[in-house]
Design brief:
- The chain has 344 residues and is an alpha+beta fold.
- The chain contains twelve helices and ten strands.
- It has two domains: 163 residues, 60s Ribosomal Protein L30, Chain: A; 164 residues, Phosphoribosyl-aminoimidazole Synthetase, Chain A, domain 2.
- The longest helix is centred in the middle third of the chain and has 17 residues.
- It is flat, with a radius of gyration of 21 Å.
- The N and C termini lie far apart (75 Å).
């Protein structure tokens, strides 16, 4: 009896079908600087076009995943938003350095390749790449039976951006008296899902279709709310000439752990808790598990997905953004690189 690769659980034809399904989405993100076609061994991008207009260009790169949020997507069989999550999450990590996103790659791994599922994921990736004016220049689909269990999916993103060397945002000039501003998040983004799943599904006994009076959508839909992509408002602020001293992407670690990463010695931050509207999902989770406040702020973004620190005069120059709610949430004080939560 002849044994084939497919007998081991790997279906090459399914992979080929998936590539055909996603090709149009991927190509729709390409700029004239993209030199390679989908299906090659690597993605090629014209370096000269990257650095046009820069005197001392610096390449900034980052990588991340959406964590166990993919498990909620599997529960709902809803995969059209986690690709959006991937881009919003990874891009945020280079925006905080002042970098402009230029290229994106993805890595998609499965127990078994499902071309329709892949198409839905990549459509989300492509959508957010176009929102960021960034080219999806390549990626990898891996069918790994034995590594992943049935119906499991993992997605990882890799972003490259560019910034002028003397315009890299580092936080080194932050001082006491500076203003802390925050862009609202759309929900959990991609963080804290291990705790969120425990609270909703194990402790409270809900499922993804449960509807609670405090939430506008079902539990599953609430948890799958896409990660906000902050590319356009952040680049608009930077391109306008406003001096942003520091930025923090509020990911795992929440406000308490991420803001200190950009603070110089001798500085701390005070956050006024009622300075922005708290999203109901966080209040619901805290109530379900009687979770301590510090644990909530260390695990979740608590309604703020991106933090900016500016001089008070520069902060006055920032305009309102219709699609991105921006709040003054606190101030820099003398301290030991920590965040203090205040009631008022």
């Amino acid at each position: 009896m002849s044994i084939s690769y497919k007998d081991s659980g790997v279906d090459i034809k399914a992979g080929e079908e998936a590539v055909k399904k996603i090709k149009e989405n991927v190509i729709s993100t390409h700029s004239p600087a993209v030199l390679s076609d989908l299906g090659g061994f690597g993605g090629a991008y014209d370096i000269k076009k990257i650095i046009e207009g820069y005197e001392n260009p610096v390449i900034v790169q980052s990588t991340d995943s959406v964590g166990t949020k993919v498990m909620v997507a599997a529960m709902l069989n809803k995969y059209d938003t986690i690709g959006r999550d991937l881009v919003g999450n990874v891009v945020g990590d280079i925006l905080v350095m002042g970098a402009r996103p230029i290229t994106f790659l993805d890595y998609l791994a499965y127990n078994k390749i499902d071309p329709d599922r892949i198409e839905r994921i990549v459509s989300g990736i492509s959508y957010e790449c176009k929102q960021s004016n960034m080219s999806l220049i390549g990626g990898e689909m891996a069918e790994l039976p034995g590594v992943y269990r049935e119906n499991e999916t993992d997605i990882v993103g890799f972003v490259t951006g560019v910034v002028e060397r003397d315009k890299i945002v580092t936080g080194k000039n932050i001082k006491s008296g500076d203003v802390v501003m925050g862009f609202a998040s759309s929900g959990l983004h991609t963080n804290g899902f291990s705790l969120a799943r425990k609270l909703f599904f194990e402790i409270a006994g809900h499922d993804v279709n449960t509807k609670l009076p405090e939430l506008e959508k079902s539990v599953g839909e609430t948890l799958l709310e896409p990660h906000t992509n902050y590319t356009n408002p952040i680049l608009d602020i930077l391109d306008s000439g406003i001096e942003v001293k520091g930025m923090a992407h509020i990911t795992g670690g929440g406000l308490l752990e991420n803001i200190p990463r950009i603070l110089p010695e001798g500085c701390g931050v005070e956050i006024k808790k009622d300075s922005y509207p708290m999203l109901p999902v966080f209040e619901v989770m805290q109530k379900i598990g009687d979770v301590e406040e510090s644990e909530m702020y260390r695990t979740f973004n608590m309604g703020i997905g991106m933090v900016l620190i500016l001089d008070s005069e520069e902060a006055k120059k920032i305009k309102d953004y219709d699609d991105f709610k921006l709040y003054k949430i606190g101030k820099v004080v003398e301290g030991d690189r920590s965040v203090i939560l205040n009631e008022r």
